[in-house]
Amino acid sequence: MNAQNDFWIGLAGALAALAFVFAQRRKVLRCSEGTERMAHIAAAIRKGANAYLRRQYSTVARIFVVVFALLLLLAAFGQLESWFIPFAFLTGGCWSALSGFVGMRIATSANARTANASHESLNRGLNVAFSSGAVMGFTVVGLGLLDISIWFHILRYGAQLDAPAIAHTMVMFGMGASFMALFARVGGGIFTKAADVGADLVGKVEAGIPEDDPRNPATIADNVGDNVGDVAGMGADLYESYVGSILAAFALGAAAYNESGLAWNAMLLPLAIAVVGVLCSIAGSFLIRTRENAGQKELLGTLRRGTYSAALLSAIAAAPLTFFILGWQNIGVYLAILAGLVAGCAIGYFTERYTSASYAPTRTLADATETGAGTTVIGGLSLGMKSTAAPVLIVGAAIILSFLAAGGTLSTDAADYTIRFDRGLYGIGVAAVGMLSTLGITLATDAYGPVADNAGGIAEMSGLGEEVRSRTDALDALGNTTAATGKGFAIGSAALTALALLVSYVDVVEDQVQFTLDLSLTNPAVLVGLFIGAMLTFLFAAMTMSGVQRAAQSIVQEVRRQFREISGIMEGTAQPDYAACVDLCTKGALHEMILPSLLAVIVPVVTGILLGVEAVVGLLCGVTVTGFLMAVFMSNAGGAW
User: Which residues, at least 6 apart from 385, have a Cβ–Cβ distance to it below 8 Å?
Assistant: First the structure.
């Protein structure tokens, strides 16, 4: 088939996803926010979240302008392949920011509505919260497919570029999205945890008042943090992973199949798989239903039914799609897609086992609390370390299986080794696309968590009945597990995507310099880069944690000041100054996010200047491995605690 004229299917998939977004948004907004008190609290949370994102985006915009100007300068001196590269970088960041903003807006509109719907039934509350999550999930995939399709048609029919040039230019679009996601994730994460720690230390521990009590000056900041970190930050993060996986597969496919005349087909396949995933995710979302008084295991099963059904439908549809686009001789690529799908489901399952109260690891950790904080900390650390085994083995198996299934070979003596090796790398790329193909529904179950958490807070602050509070507590507990599961999925998919982008980077560099890089461990530059990359993960984590510590300290001091100086707070006769805590969190997060984010950008550049490209490849390998392990460890230990 002549695939170069069939890329309109990306636009069709984007429109389907965005149509579903508008339907789900309308469904959520038709629901009542409840009492005047509930609407007032929701408005305060929404105002704080909007203020933070506005200031964060204005800060990041300045950095984007500087990078954009540098790229324009490089293009003017002929150092870039195309004049489109700077603009691709800029639009990638803008669309990533838009994804996070849309998700945050619907989340802050759905929190009070979820609390009010829970007054009717548990199932009603679940549906409202999940629908708001679906807006987030399908906005990410819809905007991702839309932007990829627009850029493809500009480069193909406007600039008349060939397949490899289009792939190389569009990878820079993914870099822009990644750059934005870095700041959104770090800044939002610091805000979230600083507000959480500050609110709990003074409110629950020192003052002895319940969580989300309206007398706590930091309670609004805590609820704002759930939205800017776990919704806007996660949306920007997974938008980057989603488009990055598709664009990496574009580049690898163009390189692997260029000589056989199937370059356009190899580029079309990941886009087609993503579109099928959108349609299957929409179908799976209609299966999210539960009964009243459902326990945690049943609620988890409800969400699992939707995600697994979407994955199964995608697996079935991918077989004829692969045959039709690449032909029967390349049907092994389907097995690579299947490996990615299965790996995504498996990572989600094992993350759930280590973070849900329905399973032994978390229950054992809960038993450790009976003997004190020390044993609880030790138990959580050991649980987090142990939980790294399954994701690493799963991702490793997916890499090997997808590489071999797509035609790759581990034997360097093969006559057609170079071609087969490139096709094996393409298999890894489409495996990442397969894992992320059902991102719409997977992200919906993740973004649901902060909405349920906010709903519980609003129910507490509004003084709703015990029955409503018990329902929101059940939804909140489920949200904690889905958030951890979503993080596990994001980490696993990021590892595969990072590997695909890394090999794409090596291909592009070797094509530019016209010689093969020496990437063996006997090369000192590679070895030094490997150590720097491994260290960078720990340094980055330390800097972000120090940022949380400093921001949390300022919140603790402010809450203590208000308890001390504003008479009547504890008696409920005076209202705390919620805005002061939100403002402190905002300033702290924006200040503390700059240095770690710039570290991640500057260190590879400096390493390349001082030690060469081989050292950069070593650095990227080191940071990918240690970053993957550290992320799984922290996410699962935190989810279990």
Answer: 633, 637
Radius of gyration for the chain, computed over Cα atoms and rounded to the nearest angstrom? 24
Whole-number Å distance between alpha carbons of 207 and 475 = 27
Q: Cα(195)–Cα(211) distance, rounded to whole angstroms?
A: 12
What is the C-alpha separation between 194 and 196, in angstroms, rounded?
5
- pLDDT at residue 80 in the model: 76
Residue 176: both structure tokens together: 């822009």
Q: Delimit the domains of the chain by residue range.
A: 3-640
* Cα–Cα distance for residue pair 347/392, rounded to 1 Å: 9
Helix 122-153 and helix 296-326, axial crossing angle in degrees, nearest 10: 20
Question: Nearest 10 degrees: CA dihedral of 601, 607, 608, 612?
Answer: -160
Q: Residue 113's closest CA among 353, 359, 452, 434?
A: 452
The 10s digit of each residue's pLDDT in 107-151 is 999 989 999 888 888 888 888 888 998 999 999 999 999 999 898
CA dihedral 499, 630, 358, 397 (to 10 degrees): 30
The three-state DSSP-derived secondary structure of 204-221 is HHHCCCCCCCCCCCCHHH
Neighbours of 180 (CB within 10 A): 28
373-414 pLDDT per residue, tens? 889 999 999 999 999 999 999 999 999 999 999 887 777 666
pLDDT at 292: 60
What pTM was computed for the model? 0.89
Sign of CA dihedral 490, 495, 500, 506: positive
CA dihedral 155, 157, 160, 163 (to 10 degrees): 60
The percent helix, strand, coil of the chain (3-state, each to 5) is 85, 0, 15
Cβ neighbour number for residue 549 with a 10 Å cutoff: 14
Flag whether pLDDT at 627 surpasses 70: yes
The position carrying tokens 């989603």 is: 242
Report the distance separating Cα 466 and Cα 464, nearest Å.
7
SS3 476: helix
- Candidates 634, 617, 358, 275; CA nearest to 490 is 634
